[in-house]
Amino acid sequence: MTSMRDWMIWPDNIVLSVLVLVLIAMVGLYAARAPMHGMIRAATYALATALRLAARWLFAAAAAMKERNKAVLLAQGRREVGQRIEREFERVGILVTRDLQGYPVLQRKLLEAITRIEEDYKKCGEVPPPPPDWVEAVAAVAQIKTGGGEVVQKILDEIRQSVEKIHDKAIGEYRRAYEERHDILEGALPFWRSIEKTLKLVDKRMSDLADNAAAVDVQMKKYQKIAAKTDEAESILSNSAFTQFNIAVVVLTIALGGAFVNFKLIALPMSEMVGAGDYITASLRTSEVAALVIILVEASMGLFLMEALRITHLFPRISNLSERARRRMIWISLTLLVILAGVEAALALMRDMLIADKQALLQSLAAAPAAAMSDGWVGRIPTAGQMVLGFILPFALAFVAIPLESFIHSGRNIGGSMLADLVRMLAFALRVLGNLTRHLGRLLLHFYDLLVVLPLMVEHLVKSLRGGGAKVSTRRLDSTGELKS
Amino acid sequence: MNRRALWALLLTLGLAVAAAGCADPRNHTHAVYVLVDTSGTYAREAGKAQLIINYLLGTLQPGDSLAVARVQSRSFTEKDIIAKAMFDQRPSQANAQKRAFRDKTDAFLRTVQGSAYTDITGAMIQGAEFLNETGAGKKTILIFSDMQEELDKSTIRNFPISLKSIRVIAVNVTKLGTDNIDPRRYLGRLEAWQKRVEGAGASEWKVINDLERLDAIFATS
A158-189 burial, b for 16+ CB within 10 Å, e for fewer? Predict the structure, then answer.
């Protein structure tokens, strides 16, 4: 407060002192008005321009990123769909080879069956010989009048008996002939069935082929869309990448859980090998790191195995190896994996023994009676379980390579997309900041003029008097902060 | 090898490299020197010392060191060390060492003989020497005593001692008959020891009378 009083012209009259000081300051500010306006305008203009330039550059960078992401996404999609088409063609090839290989046999079978049926049909077509032309003779005989003669009557009776005999014989022949034809038709029935079965098989194979061809068509359409770089293809692929990323994250999390269990199994017994007193950091023992390294080496071996089996494609050099070298690599990585799994099983057993030893020591130190341990097979279940886990987990970890590849591929797209969005957001923020700076400059100019409002009014009055008072012009600040009449 | 593969490889081998090249240079081992007062009537308390030793044996890790020494008329000598061990880095070996250590101290404490005088200072100097030789990162002297120092006329201990970076913990500090008459004697005795120990550069001074709370031995304040 004392310092405030030092500034007072008349310390006893503060109001007057402040008023005079304000007037002096106002005059001073009015005198410095033009350079101050210039300075504010220049500073805000420079800042706003820099911010807008940065925003523009970031927008351009985001667009370039988006283009790059799209190119990567489409390239990945093209590769994946290409591989799928390749697989479909392989499948179609196998189907065609298998079916067409058996087609001559099938054809021969069909032809034989058809020939046999034709023959049978022809046989069925051979009608039995017609009855002799004695029907008219019989009719003529029937018209003979007996005239009451016994001889004639006898002759007619004989004729009738002989005609009936012949009739019975003819009927018998007809029946035999039809029975034979029925037998032939019955014999042809299996061939009809065989033809039906064969035709059904052909139909099934054809429909399989058609299904595969349809699948190839679908993939080809997808491939064409990707090749045409359509937005639809990009949208589908980015959705697919997001789904793949999520699935990969879930599976990798599960795998991490497995790795943690694996770590717990071998961390303690590793201290028997590398010592329990060495530390990497204040809380991280060398034995723990060694256990971690073993797990990571197992994961690496699994990765190499999957690469060599051409299940994953993270290392093009491995994929491009000759068939012989690739097979060698499969065997080497598999052997190492088996050895490491064996080591882990042994370490799991050692862990159990160490814990039991430590427990026995603590019980003896506490002078407490040792808890009854089951010596039977029940007591050995945890040990066996640990050993089995120790052996199985390295192989289970080997399959991490598959979600890892998916994670890396989809992660590139997701990360790239997120980065592009982030850059765009940053650009937008800078753009807004640039505009705010420009408006702040105008606000500052108005505020400055507000501080020197009295001298400005005087100036205004003087100018209007000089101008004859004819016209009182209004003054306003333009968009650049310049006073305009 | 493309960039993705390189990242995968780096992820896999990152910790292996860290393990090879970034070992923590600090010493994380713990060395404990236990002084057991065998003078006068306190010799009867020696049985309780086994509890503390057992607790230490159960708590100390492979690579740590432990020594048990008795406090008698003149204790600035290695002859008073009853048992000492630097536990092996391998847990199985360390457990075997701990069993042997327990047997050795158990045998001694069962047949302990009382001494005429109590040379706590001399025993502490001897303990500091042992602890400094171990090179452990954390050093502790545990004094199982009533903290009543009694020296014969020819024994000289009234000089400054060095207990730099050593934690000193007095355990089971029993009250003497005179302390019951005037508790200020007991409190004054502890205060004098605290002053002397801290003056000697000890990193911590602590008194633990409740043997159920031995976990406080390793809890740094």
Answer: eeeeebeeeeeeeeeeeeeeeeebeebeeebe
A224 three-state secondary structure: helix
CA distance B8 to B18: 16
Q: Which residue among B4, B19, B91 places its CB closest to the CB of A293? A: B19
From A268, A276, A317, residue closest to B1, measured CB to CB: A317
Is A358 touching B (CB cutoff 8 A)? Answer: yes
Q: Write out the H or E segment, with its range, that includes residue B132.
A: helix B120-134
- Chain B residues in contact with A317 by the CB 8 A cut-off are 1
CB of A290 less than 8 A from some CB of B: yes
pLDDT at B182 over 90: no
Closest-CA residue to B54 (of B83, B91, B11, B27): B83
ipTM of this complex prediction, to 2 decimal places:
0.77
Residue A294 touches partner B, C-beta closer than 8 Å:
no
Lowest average pLDDT, out of A100-104, A222-226, A304-308, goes to A100-104
The residue length of chain B stands at 221
What per-residue confidence (pLDDT) applies to A41?
93
Rounded to two decimals, what is the model's pTM? Answer: 0.63
List the Cα angle A314/A320/A326 in 5-degree steps.
90
CA distance A120 to B129: 118
Question: Does B89 contact A358 at a Cβ distance shorter than 8 Å?
Answer: no
Cα–Cα dist B29/A189, whole Å: 95
How far apart (Å, rounded) are the C-alpha atoms in residues A299 and B10? Answer: 13
pLDDT score at A472: 46
Q: How far apart are alpha carbons A221 and A219 in whole angstroms?
A: 5
Query: pLDDT tens across A385-421, in order?
Result: 889 999 999 999 899 999 999 899 888 888 988 999 9
